[in-house]
Design a protein that fits this description.
Elements (H helix, E strand, L loop, with lengths): L1 H26 L9 H10 L2 H4 L2 H17 L1 E4 L7 H13 L14 E5 L3 E3 L3 E3 L3 E3 L3 E3 L1 E3 L4 E5 H9 L7 H12 L13 H23 L14 H14 L1 H7 L1 H11 L8
Parallel strand pairs: 1-2, 2-8
Antiparallel strand pairs: 3-6, 4-5, 7-8
Helix pairs in contact: 2-5, 4-5, 5-6, 5-7, 7-9, 9-10, 10-11
The chain binds zinc ion.
Zinc ion binds next to helix 7 and helix 9.
Length: 272
């Protein structure tokens, strides 16, 4: 048995030695170079948060961006020509969610579809009462479970230009991707331990119910009413607030903020 294991390990080692580089080249379509000075200046202009990040976090973001850009294909839709400026801004905002986490840059995401503005989802929508809406819905972004993310470029620009208004399209869609990494988006992304997961369920369920009641009564607060759609949207919307208005969230929803800080691994209260 031990000999058989050794033979299998030996064969795997030989296969890696022979084909490892080909595999890596296929996984990473291109080797992304570090941003030059002009590209960095453009990114700082488009995303004012970028130069404000502590150096260690900015360095981590640069590394994640290069991995993301090496592997993810950008596809311009309805005639949009994708530029490096677009790729860098999307990658920087997407990887912002990972700068405090110890994991690769979205291994499940393989394509980003960029539209100039809002786009129409032509998939039929199944509404309450058995109504099927086939007119299509105007969207600024959408995250699919099969590794595809759809974004409006104008929406990306707007989100990045206002880093502290509590709304961020790219943070929203990539929070869904983190949630979808385990399968269906449920608003409860994978946690490091069972007690962490149990605490998440309890705190987020209570906060979601509070938010639904407030929204139903017409109260508009820190968290966008869209979060009342379902627990998955609630997590994505609250993630936007966590990254853009961390201090206010920690004051209003300390338990939820604490869980998000543990999950994302950064203290966003310090960014203001
Ligand atoms: Zn959403």
């Amino acid at each position: 048995m031990a000999i058989l294991t050794l033979i299998v390990l030996g064969l795997l080692l030989i296969a890696w030695w022979l084909y490892g580089d080909t595999f890596k080249q296929r996984y990473y379509r291109q080797k992304e170079r570090p941003l030059d000075q002009n590209q960095r200046r453009q990114l700082a202009y488009d995303m004012p948060l970028y130069p404000r990040l502590p150096k260690a976090q900015r360095d981590k973001l640069d590394t994640l961006m290069r991995a993301f850009l090496s592997r993810v294909e950008f596809i311009g839709c309805d005639g949009l020509v994708v530029s490096d400026r677009m790729r860098y801004l999307v990658a920087a905002q997407a990887c912002l969610l990972l700068i405090g986490r110890d994991e690769p840059a979205y291994p499940n995401v393989h394509s980003v579809y960029l539209f100039e503005g809002d786009f129409i989802n032509k998939m039929p929508q199944y509404l309450p009462g058995g109504i099927v809406d086939t007119q299509g819905k105007h969207l600024a972004g959408e995250s699919w479970g099969n590794g595809r993310v759809l974004l409006s470029w104008q929406g990306c620009l707007r989100s990045a230009a206002h880093p502290f208004d509590g709304e961020n399209l790219i943070v929203h869609e990539f929070a869904h991707q983190l949630d979808q990494a385990k399968g269906l988006a449920t608003g409860a992304p994978l946690q490091r331990s069972v007690p962490d997961a149990a605490r998440w369920q309890q705190v987020f369920r209570e906060a979601f119910i509070r938010h639904c009641e407030a929204t139903f009564h017409g109260h508009r607060g820190l968290i966008d009413p869209y979060g009342a759609t379902n627990p998955a949207e609630f997590f994505a919307v609250v993630s936007e607030v966590y990254f853009e208005q961390g201090l206010a969230l920690s004051e209003q929803e300390p338990a939820m903020y604490e869980l998000l800080e543990h999950f994302y691994g950064i203290n966003t209260r310090l960014w203001h």
